[in-house]
Amino acid sequence: MTAPSQAQLADALGVDPALVTRYKRRGMPVDSIAAAQKWKAENVRARVGSKAGKGDDTGAAAPVPGYGDHRARREAAEADMAELEAKRKAAQLMPVEPAERAVFDAFRELRDATFAAMRGAAPQVLGLTEVREVQHHLEDALRGAYADFEARIRHRLGEVAKP
Known about the structure:
The protein folds into 3 domains: 64 residues, no CATH class; 29 residues; 67 residues. It is built from 6 helices and no strands. Helix 5 packs antiparallel against helix 6. The longest helix is centred in the C-terminal third of the chain and has 31 residues.
C-alpha cells in the first residue's frame, strides 16, 4: 500500500496542503490517513470559530466555509434587514418596547375596570339572597366594564391605523 499524497492528506484532514507540510515538520505521520487524523486529533487544537471536529461520525472533517459562504451569509442578512426596514416604513412593524408598554397599559386598564365594576355592583347585591340574582348583577357589571374597555381599545386602534 502506498502512502497518501499531500493533497489526499489535506483533503482528509480538511486543511490546506501547505498546512500538511507544517504538520509533517511537527511530526505528523504520513504513512496513512488514519494515522494522520489520529495525530491531528491529539496534537492540533481546533481554531475558534472552526467547524473542525463537528463533522459526521465518519471521522471526516466538516468543510471549512470559504469566502463565498461568508458572502452569501452577509448578503442574506442584508436582504433580511432591507425587508425589515421596508416593512417598518410601510407601518407593518413597530418597536417592541412601545408595543409591550401598550399591552401592559391595556391589561392594567382592564384589571382596574373589572375591580371598579365589582365595587359598583357590591351595593346592588348586598341585600340579595338568590344566587341567580347576584350572578346577573355581577355579569351585567362586568359586561358593561368589558364593553367600555373594548370601545376604548377600538378607539385607540383607530387612532393608530390613521396615517
